[in-house]
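dumping the sequnces here before i forget
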Amino acid sequence: MTVTVLEPVRATFRAVAATVVPETHALDTDGWATLESAVERALAARPERVRAQLVTFLRLIEYLPIARVVGRFSRLDASRRTLVLRRLEKSPILLIRRGFWGLRTLVMLGYYTQPEVQAAIGYRAHPDGWATRRRLAPPESRGTPLITLEVPRLPDDSTTG
Amino acid sequence: MTTTREYDIVIVGSGAGGGTVAQALAPMVAQGVRILVLEQGPRLDDHEFTGREDEMAPSLYEDGGGFLTADGTMTLAFGRLYGGSTVVYTGTSLVAPEHVIRSWCVPGLEHADLQRRSEKYMAQNQVHYLPRVLLNENNKLFFNGCHRLGFRAEQFPLNLDGCKGSSLCNLGCPNAAKMGTHRVQLPEAERQGVEVVSRAEVLRLEERAAFVRVHEKTPGGKGRPSEWAPGEYEVKARMIISCGGSVGTSALLLRSPVTAGLSGLGAGFTCHPAHILVAEHDHEITNDVGHPKSYYLDRATEEGFVLETCMYFPFTTAKNLTGFGAEHSALMHAYRRLQMIHVLACDKAVPENRITVDRSGKAVVHYTFTNAVVKSMVAATRTSARIFFAAGARRVHAPSADPPLIDRQSAYRLDDLITEAHFLPGRISVSAAHLMGGCAMGADSAGVTDSRGRVRDVPWLRVADSSLFPDSLEINPYLTIMALADRVAEGVQIDWRH
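..and the predicted 3d for all of it:
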């Protein structure tokens, strides 16, 4: 069986993920597997040292609240988790801030690179570009010598905004 | 076992520098000169450019786009494939500002010469202005916001041919419309007999030789297998031209015994540190269709920054927004209503910002945000926020504000809300894609090379990439790299005859 980086800290990782991207709270088993496999792929390309640092940092997050007698991170309610992570995000110690930044980046990578999620937030970019928005489709741009082409200037009233 | 190969000229890297040198020297092949290009990354076929963020970033960028500076506070993006970073940028094509070239004080380097060479490559790369009908609302809103504030936004000349407006430029054009070196210079060089070997990592240089490791194709990964069998090679050459980019070339020379002791090597790194700023409108706009980067506002001389239009993909956008939780998610769900501006600070070379290598030979980039850079980025964020609001935005996301979301009702307090005190490295996302310096041209004792890229005291070695820049350029560097590489190639041809 393949041992994954997240395996020993999975509960904490999921608790952090659900705080960073609240939509992940509703993920089912397959949804978590998709998110975590993207994270694992990204981690596999990183040095062993970085993977070890991630696990250590997640353990720190899990037990940090105990020092304040509020319990383990993964057992806190959403508002308390948010408070803990806000403290990390704004910590006076750079190492803590960048650790949290890296962790939130991994969560966002696992979630927002999924095509279904991208569609759900309204992302529509497509290789065919303008042709996919039929009402708007203009012609293709062809290379024209720079010196012979007039630079278009927009009048102030051309915006839709 | 190490296999030995022999060539006359070996070019390391295939981006703006390497592709240009390869094409410029290609006619020498007909005279019997054997020329080889070694590219560390893979060679992708057209159908492999899918535009999908999850697939393309790991295939195109060093460290999948996650290369961090030594203290982890800035992400550096640079291409690692056939064509280098010319595959993954937006195609903006500007000639180096005259005042910048003058300020570099490189003996023998004249702005007029760079301009002439730049214009040659603009013609070769089909550089033109997009007609107005192809501009999306994300770009028009920027233009109009600038106009209402009394700023004059300029249109970017772009190296496109057949642009369909996919907006996916930074993931490699899926329509083969971007005229990078992978489309123009390298195919022409290969047609004339220059050999290109992909997945070939140059480990170190020794006297007139490159030691190379050719990697196997990763199972399931993109790109063709290497042209050579995987393994270790010693490639002997009469001349080697390093074109691996600011980070790649500096690291290669630092881990090579013949050059590691060169004075100034690795120093003078600059990169135009950048923020992605986002604003939300009340209504949908066209943002993820059409070319993403059509306009810019140059405030380099006055305030040390440049603003550009931009539009990024969901993960890149999410990563670059400060914060997390419900507010972050709400902004992501407003994706179709988002307008974006790319803020670039015109940083200056300082002693603490430099490239080194670790014990394994991997590049380490040390970068500290100077007070001047922080001041420029904060000023740029304030100006961007004003442009967003002038364009009709309902709220603006400013990394250097806490909380980062600023509503229209608070627009009159931008100077109080967006401050240097809130520029907290490690909390806010900063990235850079214009990596410059490390092997600076200069006068005899001051430069690693002369103005033709000749490395001091190493007659068989040249440099032809952005590592030559003695200081930042204040614009996208690719056209200037091509112009400099053209000069280097010309110098090689002159020296070869003698």
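The CA atoms of residues 5 and 73 of chain A lie 19 Å apart.
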